[in-house]
Recover the amino acids of this structure.
């Protein structure tokens, strides 16, 4: 499950990644008016995915060397949140509907795999991918939560998931057009959290990206034959990681001697 090098490892990770995205798409689809028979089919598919995630959690627990440490680890808590709806008798239905939006957090475990799939090798590309993932995750979760909270008491303003996404984006970017307004206490609390998240997280993420882009303009991309490190200073003759002489400068030196 942690392997992304072998064909079996890639297949397992790809299946898990697909199921996370597919289950999230089911949540979004159910916010729109759909026929009852299709709704039942989607619920059955979601239940099957939920069982699959429960088996995944048990397998990870079984394979863990330190069981207690595994249970309280960050990824395990996220996995546990994702499968809590499998115990409806112990939880309120409204709470189950809210926590299922956190299932998208399971994608954090597969961030490295997604970077591997899209063959993002440069440091600025990895940072950019993480920023996009962070923004996507935050907007998705807040949109799901505000929809779940406000749709029951304010269905005219929050009709579907797209309305919730629109509200989340304009709120987190502090634009605040004011055409959609939460009326419940929970909705207003979520709005405050959105604003605080937007002004604290988004500028820092974009700042990291700008710093990396400025740094990249002073570097060249050339894989070291010794360690494989690919980002070097423009005037570098040796790898800063392992000290291997860089071939690109060997060629330049030879051509200078011939001249």
């Amino acid at each position: 499950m942690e392997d992304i090098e072998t064909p079996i490892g890639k297949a397992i990770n790809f299946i898990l990644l697909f199921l996370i995205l597919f289950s999230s798409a089911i949540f979004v689809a159910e916010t729109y008016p759909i026929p009852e028979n299709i709704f039942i089919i989607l619920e059955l598919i979601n239940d099957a995915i939920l069982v699959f995630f429960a088996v995944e959690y048990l397998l990870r627990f079984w394979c863990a060397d330190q069981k207690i440490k595994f249970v309280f680890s960050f990824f395990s808590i996220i996995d546990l949140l994702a499968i809590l709806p499998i115990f409806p008798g112990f939880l309120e239905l409204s709470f189950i509907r809210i926590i299922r939006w956190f299932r998208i957090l399971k994608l954090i475990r597969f961030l490295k795999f997604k970077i591997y799939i899209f063959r993002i090798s440069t440091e600025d590309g990895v940072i950019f991918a993480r920023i996009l993932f962070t923004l996507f995750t935050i907007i998705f979760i807040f949109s799901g939560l505000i929809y779940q909270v406000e749709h029951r008491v304010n269905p005219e303003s929050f009709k579907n998931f797209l309305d919730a996404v629109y509200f989340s984006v304009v709120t987190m970017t502090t634009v605040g057009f004011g055409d959609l307004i939460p009326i419940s206490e929970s909705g207003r609390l979520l709005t405050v959290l959105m604003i605080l998240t937007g002004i604290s997280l988004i500028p820092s993420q974009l700042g990291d990206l700008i710093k990396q882009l400025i740094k990249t303009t002073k570097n060249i991309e050339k894989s070291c034959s010794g360690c494989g490190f690919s980002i070097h200073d423009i005037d570098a003759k040796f790898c800063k990681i392992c000290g291997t002489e860089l071939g690109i400068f060997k060629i330049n030196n030879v051509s200078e001697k011939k001249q």
User: Anything to note?
Assistant: The chain is about 65% helix and 0% strand. The beta strands are 219-221, 231-233. The longest strand covers residues 219-221.
